[in-house]
Amino acid sequence: MPRPVICIGAALVDELFHTTTELLLSTTTDATITKSAGGVSRNIAHQLALLGVPVQLITAVGNDSDGDWLKQVCTSAGVKLDATITRTGLSGKYTGILNPDGSLYTAFLTNAANHLITPQHLEKHIDLLKTASYILADANINVDTAEWILNFSCETEIPFVIEPVSVPPARKYKNANLNGLHMITPNEDELPVLCSDKAFFTQQQVEELLNRGVQNIWLHNGKHGSALYTKEKSISLNAPSIEVVDCTGAGDGSLSGYILGKHLGKEAIDCLKLAHTLSAEILQVNGAIATHLSQEKLLGLVSKYYPE
After folding, report:
1. Which of 139, 211, 219, 234 is 20 to 30 A from 107, comparing alpha carbons?
2. pLDDT (tens digit, 9 = 90+) per residue, 3-53?
3. What is the 3-class SS of the chain, one letter each residue?
């Protein structure tokens, strides 16, 4: 039986306000609203499950109607929740305000319960963790939990990936032990806060993380594409030119595509092509998940965006 990808981190209710006119402060702006299941780790788990990858999600939700709904959405997609926590209280919510072009203006995070995902909780589910092909965590989890997972990864040789999410959670990892980490996936804003003030230029920041023991640094540069750095080499890939509808979840989808490529045994450049293809598809729909794609359809779309 294929080994699952285990995703650890946030599961949230996403409420997105899509403004129809330019945002002005201290006044009313017309908007439409969409509600969907979100959270970085949850999004990745959901997308991977839809693409035929076995996946477990370790997260924390409330015992409210939102928590019940989040669990139902996950299980319907094929995500297993064997080690997920249901706490007394409200589920977490992400409220995003989007510009008319689909880009993010600002966002709010409330009632997230990621602090409940502790080393002690993971220790209780260590037999499940040992079945993983990859372990992926978003930076919303506490640093001590991430360092526990990293120690577990080094002992078991199960690759561990950290997705920084955004600048505030990424900043927590500036002084964290990252020695032996398989991969970290920052964008241009997140990379500097992971590093010391001495590392001013991008290349210096990449080298600092490599010297701290990170094996792969996948730097996302938005519409300019991405680059994958190791001590031995770097490879880069342009992003397709598309009409953006909604930016939510594009980064999550990109990582889902990369992990799918690894699951299928593909080389790094082909994993990047899959990643960019899935991200491009997500950018052209509302919400963080490309529900219209199967694994077969996604694989077929790579040649559309990256013709030989």
Report:
1. 219
2. 999 999 999 998 989 999 999 889 999 999 988 899 999 999 999 999 999
3. CCCCEEEECCCEEEEEEEECCCCCCCCCCCEEEEEEEECHHHHHHHHHHHCCCCEEEECEEECCHHHHHHHHHHHHHCCECCCCEEECCCCCEEEEEECCCCCEEEEEEECCCHHHCCHHHHHHCHHHHCCCCEEEEECCCCHHHHHHHHHHHHHHCCCEEEECCCHHHHHCCCCCCCCCCCEECCECCHHHHCCCCCCCCHHHHHHHHHHCCCCEEEEECHHHCEEEECCCCEEEECCCCCCCCCCCCHHHHHHHHHHHHHHCCCCHHHHHHHHHHHHHHHHCCCCCCCCCCCHHHHHHHHHHHCCC
The CATH homologous superfamily of the domain defined by 5-23+32-305: Ribokinase (3.40.1190.20)
pTM given for the model: 0.91
Domain residue ranges in the chain: 5-23+32-305
Write the pLDDT tens digit of every residue in 69-121. 999 999 999 999 999 999 999 999 989 999 998 888 998 989 888 999 999 99
